[in-house]
C-alpha cells in the first residue's frame, strides 16, 4: 500500500466543510463529523484475513490517507445509521490507492477476523454494480450472519474523485438498503467542485 509524505490540497477543515450539512435532507438528524487520525478504526485486534481484505477495509476507512474525516448519518426511519468517509491524497495518490482497491477486491471474497468483543467472525463479500459517478467507483456488500437465520448487510460505495476517495456506507438487517443515490451524487459533486476551485489548485 502506498505511503505519503506530502500534504493534500484539501485539509481537514476543507473536508469537514464539504460533508453533508444537517439540513441536507428531512430524512436525517444528528450528523457529527470526526477527523481521522493514523490510528482511526485500528486498535490491538489481529489483522483481517486474507490480507487483501485488510487493505480494502483500510482504504474505505480512510486509514491509507494523510487527511480524512468521517460523518455519521442518523436516518429518521431506520435504527441503523449510515456514514461517509472523505479521504484526501496528495498529487496522484488517490489514483494509486484506488487501483490497489480494485486489485484487492476480487481477492476478498470472504473476510475473517476478530470483533471488538474478541469473537471470531467470517463475513461474505459480494461485489455488485457500482453507480456511474466520479472518476472511478466500486460497490460491494459485506454480509454477516447475526444469528437466528438473520443476515446483516453492510453496503459500501467507494468513489474516487480527483485526489479524493469517498466511501458511503449503509447497514441493514435482512434487507439491502442502498445509500440514497441523490446524496451520493451530491457529495461527489461537492468534492469535484472544491478541487476545481482556484484556492484548491493553489493549495490554499
* Main pleated sheet: 9 strands, antiparallel
**Number of individual domains:** 1
Q: Roughly how much helix do the residues carry, as a percent range?
A: 10-25%
For this structure, the CATH topology is: Protein Transport Mog1p, Chain A
The CATH class designation is Alpha Beta
Q: Class by helix and strand content? A: alpha+beta
H and E string:
HEEHEEHEEEEEHH
What is the CATH superfamily?
A: PknH-like extracellular domain
Could you tell me the strand content as a percent range?
25-35%
Distance between the termini: 28 Å
Low-pLDDT windows of residues: 199-204
CATH architecture: 3-Layer(aba) Sandwich
Task: Label the overall shape.
Answer: globular
Rg value:
17 Å
Structure description:
By secondary structure, the chain is α+β, with helices and mostly antiparallel strands. The chain has one domain: 3-Layer(aba) Sandwich (Protein Transport Mog1p, Chain A), CATH 3.40.1000.70. It contains five helices and nine strands. Strands 1, 2, 3, 4, 5, 6, 7, 8 and 9 form a nine-stranded antiparallel sheet that branches. α2 packs across α3. The radius of gyration is 17 Å and the shape is globular. Residues 199-204 have low confidence and may be disordered.
Amino acid at each position: 500500500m502506498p505511503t505519503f509524505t506530502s500534504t493534500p490540497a484539501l485539509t481537514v477543515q476543507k473536508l469537514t466543510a464539504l460533508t453533508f450539512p444537517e439540513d441536507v435532507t428531512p430524512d436525517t438528524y444528528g450528523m457529527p463529523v470526526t477527523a481521522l487520525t493514523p490510528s482511526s478504526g485500528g486498535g490491538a485486534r489481529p489483522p483481517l484475513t486474507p490480507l487483501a481484505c485488510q487493505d480494502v477495509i483500510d482504504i474505505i476507512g480512510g486509514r491509507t490517507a494523510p487527511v480524512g474525516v468521517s460523518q455519521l448519518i442518523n436516518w429518521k426511519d431506520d435504527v441503523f445509521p449510515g456514514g461517509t468517509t472523505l479521504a484526501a491524497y496528495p498529487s496522484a495518490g488517490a489514483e494509486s490507492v484506488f487501483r490497489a482497491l480494485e486489485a484487492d477486491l476480487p481477492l476478498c471474497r470472504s473476510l475473517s477476523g476478530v470483533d471488538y468483543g474478541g469473537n471470531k467472525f467470517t463475513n461474505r463479500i459480494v461485489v455488485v454494480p457500482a453507480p456511474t459517478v466520479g472518476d472511478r467507483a466500486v460497490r460491494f456488500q459485506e454480509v454477516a450472519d447475526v444469528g437466528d437465520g438473520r443476515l446483516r448487510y453492510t453496503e459500501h460505495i467507494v468513489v474516487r474523485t480527483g485526489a479524493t476517495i469517498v466511501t458511503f456506507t449503509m447497514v441493514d438487517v435482512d434487507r439491502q438498503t442502498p445509500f440514497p443515490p441523490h446524496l451520493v451524487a451530491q457529495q461527489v459533486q461537492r468534492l469535484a467542485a472544491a478541487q476545481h476551485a482556484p484556492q484548491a489548485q493553489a493549495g490554499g
